[in-house]
Design a protein that fits this description.
Layout lengths: L1 H5 L2 H16 L20 H10 L6 E9 L14 H4 L1 E8 L2 E7 L5 E5 L3 E6 L4 E6 L17 H11 L3 E3 L3 E5 L2 E10 L6 E9 L5 E8 L7 E10 L4 H4 L8 E4 H7 L10 E2 L1 H7 L9 E2 L2 E9 L6 E6 L6 E7 L7 H4 L5 E4 L2 E8 L2 E8 L2 E7 L3 H9 L3
Parallel strand pairs: 6-13
Antiparallel strand pairs: 1-2, 1-12, 2-3, 3-4, 4-5, 5-6, 7-9, 8-9, 9-10, 10-11, 11-12, 14-16, 15-16, 16-17, 17-18, 18-22, 19-20, 20-21, 21-22
Helix pairs in contact: 3-5
């Protein structure tokens, strides 16, 4: 979508980070530093999950939080320290049946995120700008089954399928933020890229999530986590949840702009297969059979008819590499100019821009009138080697 091409790189990453926070904090999330406290009785994982899904949920949640973001090394982004979402911060969380509100404060700049069933708003105090976007609609099969939790057998079958691709721990009795809890850890059994593991804990009484953390391979501390230092269950007023941005804030409606960006141009069906893509594209498409030992699994031409891109996927699972190719934008208003904020490297004599994180690498460069963007949960050395092979 064109709106995401015209956003500054750091602002786009802020929005993606906020979307992750919304997913993490969709109910109550609390990561404690460990410690003592009573623990619940042992249960099989399927039973613990079933009990959590069928428990009576609290009417609301109020919490004090710490958000940790160690994805980006120091200096990886110009202006990356201008937002609590990029540098981490502390704040508060409110949740009720209408939605949620999360405030983060830090010396780098405050952020407020609010959401309901349909829309989310991210207010960035450092730029006095609020970004709004639509949330995916929840699927509903019928009025009688919408709120029906899965049965114990269905959960057991799901966990059996999950175990084919992930290592899944049991429901470990624990105590999180002073609450009796169960903790589960999952890690990819293969094709996991740089992802090491993810951990989730939930309240043993009401099923509210109490811990979430994502770890890179070999890391002892999480790359991303949302910590609550104090949590209270009880009624939360709508005025505490649905708070508009301050007066004078610039509003950027990503949903509206994204919809309008394709008006008049038409969205054409994807063209698949290398020969068909190369024949239909208005620019030279480079897609070798393999990259750094990963076999090409798919290549297709996608997007509006007046702005098509070739997308190739190498490998499978979380360890796959995705390559996007499109005509180089020489106007200065597209993605290449915004990606100049990324650190520059030399790539076969050309200047490329690279973002390296604990969980993956993004690399972009121009060659022969084509802009290349390569992304994958791979080290920078592998990303650079793959980029060098795209000739």
């Amino acid at each position: 979508m064109r709106i995401f091409r015209t956003l500054p790189t750091t602002r786009l990453i802020v929005i993606l980070a906020a979307a992750a926070v919304i997913a993490i904090g969709g109910t109550a999330v609390a990561v404690a530093a460990g410690g003592g406290g009573s623990t619940p009785p042992p249960k099989p994982l399927a039973t613990a999950v079933h009990d959590a899904l069928t428990a009576t949920k609290p009417s609301g949640v109020t919490a004090r939080i710490n958000f940790t973001n160690k994805l980006f090394p120091s200096g990886a982004l110009v202006g990356a320290n201008t937002s609590a979402l990029m540098s981490g911060g502390s704040g508060r969380l409110w949740l009720n049946d209408t939605g949620g509100r999360l405030e983060l404060q830090s010396d780098a700049g405050d952020v407020q995120i609010t959401w309901n069933d349909t829309k989310a708003t991210i207010y960035d105090a450092s730029s006095t700008t609020a970004y709004t976007f639509d949330l995916p609609a929840q699927a509903q099969t019928s009025t009688t089954t919408t709120d029906q939790p899965p049965s114990l057998d269905e959960i057991t079958n799901f966990l059996t399928g999950l175990a084919q691709h992930w290592n899944v721990s049991g429901a470990e009795p624990s105590n999180v933020a002073g609450q009796e809890a169960y903790t589960v850890t999952i890690s990819p059994s293969h094709d996991g890229g740089l992802l090491g593991s993810a951990q989730l804990a939930w309240d043993a009484v009401n099923g509210v999530p109490l811990k979430v953390a994502i770890y890179a391979q070999g890391a002892s501390s999480p790359a991303l986590s949302l910590d609550v230092t104090d949590i209270t269950f009880g009624d939360v007023s709508n005025s505490d949840v649905q708070v508009p941005p301050p007066a004078g804030t610039k509003i950027v409606d990503l949903s509206t702009q994204a919809q309008g960006s394709t008006s008049g141009s038409g969205q054409s069906p994807a063209i698949t297969g290398l020969a068909a893509v190369q024949a239909a594209a208005t620019f030279p498409v480079t897609a070798p059979d393999s990259l750094v030992g990963l076999t090409r699994r798919d290549v297709r031409l996608v997007g509006p008819t007046d702005s098509r891109s070739a997308v190739a996927v190498y490998g499978e699972g979380l360890g796959a590499i995705v390559v996007v190719e499109r005509p180089q934008d020489t106007s200065g208003g597209g993605a290449p100019s915004q990606l100049q904020a990324l650190p520059s490297i030399s790539l076969d004599g050309a200047t490329a821009h690279e973002l390296t994180t604990q969980l993956g690498t993004i690399l972009t460069w121009d060659r022969g009138g084509v802009t290349y963007i390569l992304a994958g949960s791979v080290p920078s050395s592998a990303a650079e080697a793959a980029a060098s092979a795209l000739k």
